[in-house]
Specification:
Largest interface: A-B, 46 and 44 residues
Mean pLDDT of chain B: 89
CATH superfamily of chain A: Rieske [2Fe-2S] iron-sulphur domain
CATH class of the largest domain in chain B: Alpha Beta
Number of strands of chain B: 37
Oligomer: heterodimer
Radius of gyration of chain B: 34 Å
Number of helices of chain B: 27
Structural class of chain A: mainly beta
Strand order of the largest sheet of chain A: 2-3-4-10
Order of helices and strands of chain A: HEEEEEEEEEEEE
Structural class of chain B: alpha/beta
Shape of chain B: elongated
Distance between the termini of chain A: 22 Å
CATH architecture of the largest domain in chain B: 3-Layer(bba) Sandwich
CATH architecture of chain A: 3-layer Sandwich
Largest sheet of chain A: 4 strands, antiparallel
Distance between the termini of chain B: 26 Å
Strand content of chain A: over 45%
Strand content of chain B: 15-25%
Amino acid sequence: MITELEKYRNTDFSKVTHWYKAAPVGSFPENGGACIKYKDLQVAVFNFSRRKEWYACQNLCPHKMQMILSRGMIGSEGEEPKVACPFHKKTFSLKSGKNMNGDGCDIATYPVKIQDGFVFVGFEA
Amino acid sequence: MTGFKFCEKLRSAEGGQNFHLTVFGEEPLPAYDRVHLSSYIAGTTAEELLMAPRTWYQENQIDLRTNELIVSIDRKKKTVKGHTGVEVPYDILILATGSGAFVPSVEGVEKKGVFVYRTLEDLDAIVSYAKNVKSAAVMGGGLLGLEAAKSVLDLGLEAHVVEFAPRLMPRQLDEAASAVLQKKLEDLGIHIHLNKNTRRINGNGKLTGLEFMDDTSLPVDMLVISAGIKPRDELAVSSGLEKAPRGGFVVNEYMQTSDESIYAIGEAASCNNSVYGLIAPCYEMATQVVNQLTGQAVRPFKGFDMSTKLKLIGIDVASFGDPFATGKEAKSIVYEDSVKGLYKRINITPDGKNLLGGILVGDASSYNMLWQMVQNSLPVPSVPESLILNIGKASEHQGAGIENLPADAQICSCENITKGAICKAIEEGGLTQLSEIKSCTKAGTGCGGCMPMISDLLKYQLNAMGKQVRNVLCEHFGYSRQELLDIIKVKEIKSYEVLLDEFGKGDGCEVCKPAVASILASVWNELITKQDTIQDTNDRFLANIQRGGTYSVVPRIPGGEITPEKLIVIGEVARKYGLYTKITGGQRIDLFGARVDQLPDIWEELINAGFESGHAYGKSLRTVKSCVGTTWCRFGVQDAVSFAIQVEERYRGLRSPHKLKGAVSGCIRECAEAQSKDFGIIATEKGWNLYVCGNGGSKPQHAQLLATDLDSATCLRYIDRFLMFYIRTAEPLNRTATWLNKMEGGIDYLRDVVVNDSLNIGAELENEMTRMIETYACEWKEVVNNPELRARFRHFVNVEENDPTMAFQEMRGQKIPASWG
């Protein structure tokens, strides 16, 4: 499973070489997330409608290696948007992917853009 | 110990489960606690000294090979070879070989009756030899030597300590402190010989005494050498790893040896030309390597504070910071009481602002506070002598109190646990016992020296929590659950977003979202599927998430009564979807291993067969368990099953601060275990006795008797009031037992409210419950019949596929999730 984890790399907006057209905006619940598949990656996409923002991160929670983050609750700590893993409530910044519990692994995040009613997720390859 | 700590930390670190671990140990036993080695002679068994039993290694997938000495490392092939010839490959090698006893080269050390003090076998040999002798000398007046002297005393021998230096514990104590300690030890019958350089060990085969350089001699029957440690670095030479001049594998500040695949930790490692013989730095080294292997943040190891506190034969001795600071950089304040055998010294900066270090003999109760002052550079009070003199309560008022420590102050140095972490554990885990803190945070599990401080911290934190006036939900709502419930009711708020806009701030979180969802459900009883993203995943997908990301399905089986036809339906559904089946503790059947996309199909079949949601996923009524009662049982006095079904159907789907369980027993034998439930009903000749606020779980608590000999209608009325009162006033995730424990006046007050209607809210509570009962609807029925809701149950939204990482294996003829790593 460690190899599974290594597939996910933080992707910076400036480095995106491919914008993957994932699904219509309506596929993602308001203030919640859903999972998309791109190649052999599972990416959680969040429609943070309260903040009028979109975020994407790996679906894999590194704590117990569960493919689950898209089903997590989103929210904020101070200004930082975050997602909480449904399994053990580990929380991660949706912006940086940083683990906000002060222990353990961070996660990879991906840029998102909305165009013509569709959600696009940016990848480096 | 360091090797064990490494294994423990690695296995509990994120990603640390993915390593194959093989542990070699030269000794026959797995790692044991050498810090408390002397207690072995006082009667502690070897078993009790083990860091963990062998089963622990099995449970953590660690291949433990004891009685196997590694004799060589082939760094090219990356293998190690044991003395039996077995060769094992490695990717990463951790040398935690520890140390052996340092034996000075004195003529005659090979004589019979000369022992070292290091392993359990050494101690066994000492114990056995001691049976036939009368006196023993310990060579070494340091920390370890004095421990050994205690053991010699425990064995009933005349004890002597021989020290080369002019004082005892030369690394920790100054001469005055040593003199106080010496006096106390002599009072206990230990003979102290300082300034003694041993020239020869006399005896013809068997030792008879020691001869010193100053031409004096000491006749003894036995000698225990405890004069220091020598790193076990034999492998360095044969494998070509760099070795420090004074012993130990040379490592950089990341514990790496000259070979980057090989780390050395503990007493075997030499970092910056120092070998660390205390437990805290050794554990810190283990943490360092674990962090590197699991890709976590790594701080270079920059030496370590060597402060120490111990009880030597009942005498407190402590030394912290720089115990010897003098001259220009420090002023010392010394307090000595030779009547009581007390010595206290503190060294402060010339400006009197900071504490540099000090020594305590006879009474080390202020050690932790003083040590913290040094560690955190806390200001020294204007009357610094108050730190070591009992002038009223000066020290508490002048900045040395535990409340003044910063949150990042390290409390347990062995495990590196901060004040903040302990306080958080106390608060969030609801801890009230020292043992709970130890098991939750691991603080105090190393040397145990910080236990008094943890105890103070516990008192302080509990006190602080008790005083807390406002018990707010989280950073987004400045209200308690009860206040929010009132707001929602009065303002008729029906959505989380509106509540957050009008009464909260920020964007919510995983604490307030499900708490508010629960309140909204308790007040309005609308289907929770309407606001699915504020629900915990179990409530969002109306099933219980399990390891591997599948869900389990629990149909309601009221009172545990089920027809053969329905049993067959459950069996057929389980077979069709390949589900693991198990009987639950609440007299129903749990079907495990359903993919999220299968849930609606499974429920469609169950609902068509007459089942409904069992709400096993919700903070809501679970089951009302029953015994078979008068219908079949020859002892029964009431129809327990019929009443249990009635009660369960009355409260099904009722959302509450935590889960609710009930039971009905048909007679006093109490086969339904009603007294362990949130509400328990026990039949009497005249009706029912009602018990409330019990629970099983980690802190079992018996339910308490609320009312006796009730008719069925009255019993239901009281339960209505009781449950509604609980829903209104409890904090989130407090079971009824916890709620009652916090209630001022306890069960008597609750009885006044529920039975005597002292608050005059009885009718109101009953009306609320009636509305709940009337508006109940099965959530799964709604989902199954609503294509839009059904569409939410899929793993990917962009492809018609299931989670490809999901994997199963078989156990006893059923499937279980595959273990990862």
